[in-house]
Amino acid sequence: MAYLLAHDLGTSGNKAVLYSETGILIASCLQTYSTQYPHDGWVEQDAKDWWKAVCKSTKQLLETARIAPAEVMAISFSAQMMGCLPVDQAGIPLRPMITWADTRASRQENWMLERTSMDRVYAVTGHRVSASYAAAKFLWIRENEPEVFKKTAHMLQAKDYVIYRMTGQIVTDYSDASGTNLFDIREKRWSQELLNAWEIPASILPELHPSTDIAGTITQRAALETGLLEGTPVVIGGGDGSCACVGAGVVQDKHAYCVLGSSSWISAASREPVFDPKKRTFNWVHLDPCLYTPCGTMQAAGYSYRWFCNTLCDAEKQQAQENEKNVYDILNERVKHTPAGAGGLLYLPYLLGERSPRWDSKVRGAFLGLSVTTGKAEMARAVMEGVGMNLYVILQALKTQVPINRLALIGGGAQGDVWPQILADIWGMPVETAVHSIEATSMGAAICAGVGIGLYRSFREAFVARMETRIFNPDRQANAVYRKLCPLFEQAYESLGKVSDGLALFRESAE
Q: Cα-Cα-Cα-Cα dihedral of 41, 498, 394, 437, to 10°?
């Protein structure tokens, strides 16, 4: 037998997953690592912990699956994006990586906008200027850690560092490059214009490649540390969003997918980047270098439902414990028997501020329309509907330029039949879920490995008949209700703008 090995370098740990050449998940194992929060808004990880996790998980996986290293055809990666790891000429990290969740570089973001307009950066990179991206984080290092800056030879992403440890090569792919604010998304090269404007040396940026390129092969030293066979091909892979896109089956234009987890995003496959006039959405490069993945991300999707459960549902949690049930199954059953529209209750899902479609760090969540007849079932349904209506704004922004005729739903919220049906009813289009749970990001990385070594001729060929799906078609009556509520949802956000600003000032003064 022959196998593909995918490493998914997430925020909390590395998951090593072994797939057969026909796409069947054989085995997986997880090695966790820690995250440091030195100050408010600072989020860092030690790159050496990633390597230890990769080595341990690889050895454990080979042992668990009882396969020989020679049976692994190729290795590839899915990984967290938008980080900044400076390394020296020998590839040794000079400090912990500043991760995607770190927001310390707000001053640098403002300086970048003084040198280049938001419109121009969006036109070149497909992204807004943001402290979330690698460029602003590197500028923070330049300003606050000059000794680190002087020694920096390369600025890497998480998977790029692990690839270096495996192969000795300093490379990155187009999808991870898309998260730097320095990548010309149309030309697929580093933007000299932006590098000049922000005084960033081009020499620190890795060599660019499509995700399917082979970075190199496992070195003798890496073979000893990982248990893999020296000479095994290492395919570059991509960022977790682009890998999830492939894992969800979105491998040709007009297809889209939604991840419904703690946060949520909708992304499509397109032959061209999608530039929204209001800059509500942004763009990555797909694992297939001929495609792009225009995307919009909201902060608190499943997180909203979890907050509601943890804050207001002690009785239901007790009931679940006594009956050995999942508390969400109890809530979902009540939601299922509550009419669309939740009795005129709206929920604004902005517990953590918002990225897409608002780009508003000051806004916070709200229930509007509470009455004496409102119960927990209506509130639970309103939370699901509020998330769905917020995602609908993203979907509509994408559909202005991408004709979407298929939408796959993955993530924790895709389990069961309540939330997928609500989303289909709000969006007015079929929603497709996998019958069996899938590891979308690692599957995307495994398929990338297969394409990279020529096992599959294309991403489309690799995905044919790869999973059994279930279709949720929109209910006409429910959709008619949501057509009335969605404009009110938009109006609610717009009308509360001054209140949100005032409350933000109040919070700041109270700290």
A: 50
